[in-house]
Structures are given as structure tokens and as C-alpha cells.
Design brief:
The complex is a heterodimer of chains A (about 300) and B (about 110). Chain A is built from 10 helices and no strands. With about 300 residues, chain A is an all-alpha fold. Chain A folds into 2 domains: about 200 residues, Growth Hormone, Chain: A; about 70 residues. The N terminus and C terminus of chain A are likely disordered. Chain B is mainly alpha-helical. In chain B, about 80% of the residues lie in helices and about 0% in strands. Chain B contains 5 helices and no strands. Chain B is elongated and about 55 Å long. Classes of the chains: A mainly alpha (about 300), B mainly alpha (about 110). At the A-B interface, helix 2, helix 4, helix 5, helix 7 and helix 8 of A face helix 1, helix 2, helix 3, helix 4 and helix 5 of B.
Amino acid sequence: MSVGDETTHHPGADWRSRFWCVFAGQASSLVGSALTQFVLLWWITDATGSVSALATAGLAALLPQALIGPFGGVLADRYSRRLLMIAADAVSASCMLVLIALFLSGRVELWHAYIMIAVRSTMQGIQQPAATASIPMLVPESFLSRAAGLDRTLASLTIVAAAPLGALAIGTMPLGLALGIDVATAVVGIMPLLVFRIPQPVVPDGGQTDVLSELRDGAALVCTHKGLRHLYMLLAALTLIVMPSSTLVILLVKEQFLGGAVEVALMESAAGAGLIAGGIAATLRVPGRQILWSCGARCCPRSPSRWPH
Amino acid sequence: MPTDLFWPAVAWWGLGHAAFVMGDAARLTLLLRVVPLHQQGRALSLLTSVTALAGPVGIGLAIPIGEWIGVRWLFVLMGAVAGCVSLLAFSSAPLRQLGADRDMRQASN
């Protein structure tokens, strides 16, 4: 399905069931992925006890997504966003099935886990822009603020719930079964996408060229529009300024409040509660002027360290 | 810094996170509203790349400053500068106008 006029796009009368099914599927897939990522990192830590092994896993988790990210955005604009989301989940789940088989056969090696983590990171670089860019195609303009609030609540939940749910899975089931959660949640994520279609925007004449030109086109869009350019500069500056607080809060608790692990855990719990509460508040409240909220709320110096945009 | 200010710090830390998410949801709504639908994938992933690069640079800058002034004053500095930058952003007319009209989408049609 194509959209004829971008400024008057409406997803149709049955948008509610379609949006909620797709959102619930994506929520399941994201939480499952975060949970099993924790399980894999724990297994690496437990099996090796090595800082370099854990650092390599961290690189495998971050680097592919960072590198593929800009191209993932171009793919989301060129091809079916629905098929990209299905393919990303299917590839991750297939790789996880291979890893589970290796675990069950006792032939698993450390590098198998690295590859799994890197594949998932790459797939997230493809899935994330496709999923977020699908939001305005799935909901009417009047619901966009709430949909964005839900998206951020889900991102918060993924950060907050990954460790406790992963620990619960490790404590209550064999490793193979714990990793199987990722496959099951990926299937739950794919099912609504097989049932419902996501409308694709119409590309104006001459708007689709080659991947590199479209990549440049995206950068030019931001650079040539003053408002967008200022917004991106503001967000980059604020991330640069406040990001260290995420890392250094442990030192603040230890040196200034003379606290230990319990006090650090209290700070992190407060952060988790704030993330969820803020997401829910953003979903329930519909601000009239987003830019005022965006600038105003960011006066509070804090940025989650692994924030998915 | 007195240790009995720990609980206010916990509360403020939680409040800061809540405010951040509210601002981030507004940021996402704004981009989804103003960027032409067929270019949203690129615009969103570009922002992800920009902030992903800014994070490590910030940590790289904070380490020597923190060594010099101590972690307490580093947090004070980060809070003060972030607040000033956010307030300064209100002085940008193009930024204030962003989302007030639908110029970008209309221009793309």
C-alpha cells in the first residue's frame, strides 16, 4: 500500500488493532533479545572470567550496529520496512538456533558467542530505523505523541528489565532453554508482521537513486534545514556533556557519599524507575510543542548510556 | 558533599531520568512529524550515529577534567553546562519554529 499525500496520511479505520499487534510483537522481540544478550554476556564472564573477553563481546555488541546504522536508515527508506523487520528478526533467530545446537552438543566456542552477538547487533542496525520510521505509517497524526511515548517506554523497559529477567532465566532453566527465549520472542515479533501490512511512503520522482547518493541525501536533509541542524547539534552537544555521568556515577557514590554496592544499586534502581515513569508520563501526556519539551526536559543532566534511538 | 544528601541525590537521579525520557519522546515525535516520510529512516539513523559518536568523545573529555577538578565538581560542571546549553537552545528561532509548521513535508511533495 502506498501513501498518496504525505501531509494527509491516515493509516485507515482499523489502525488500532494493527498498531497494537505490531507494537506488542516488537516489544516481545526487543525484550527477548535484551534478556538473551545478558545471558550470553553472563556465560562469557562465567566461562572465561576475562576482561578482554567481555570487552570483545561489548565491541561485538556495539560496533556492527554503529557501522551499519546509516545504511540501515537508507534500506528503511528504499525497501519494505515490514520485510526488513521480518528479515532482521528471522536472521537473528536462525543464528540463535545454531548457537543453541552448539551449546546442546557441547561444541560451543567463545567465538560462536561473539558472532551471535555481532549478528544481532547488525540486525538491530537494520531493524531499528525500519521499526521507528514505520510509526507514522501505522498511527494517525493525533496519536503520534503517544506512539513515540510508547516507543521510548519500551526502550526504557528493555534497558531496565534485561538484567533481572536474564538473571531469572539463568537461575531457573538450562542455558539452551534460556537462549531459546530469544527465538520464541522473535517468532512473536514476526507473526503480526506476516498478518498486517505496513504502508510504505511514496518516494517522489528522482528520489530513489543509489545507496550512497541516498545516504548523502539524508545528511543533506539535516545540514540544509536550519531547525533540524540546530536540533542535531543540540542533541550531540548534550550527549557529549552528560554521557559521562552514566559511567562516573559509581565513582560519585563511592567517593562523595561513601557508599558501596547497595548505594550504587539504589541509584540505578531510581534511574530505572525514572525511565519507566518518564516513558509512561510521555505516553499519557500530549505536549503541544515538542521542541519546548525536548529542550526543557534535557536541562536535567542525564542520559542513559545505551540509549536506543 | 555531605553524605546525608544521598537520598536527595537518589531522588534527583530518578527525576533526571524521567525528564530525559519525556524530552526524548518529544524529540522523537518532532522528527516523525517534520521529516518527510520517505526520508525518516535516514534522518533517524543519522541521529543515532551522531549521538553514538558524541558519547565516547564526551567520556574522553570528562576523564582528564575529572582528574583535575574531582568527580564532585565534574558532576556540577556537567549539570551546569548541560542546563546552559539547553536554555541557550531556546534562543534559536529555527529550532523554536521546528514543528510549528509542516514546511519540510510540504516541500517534499
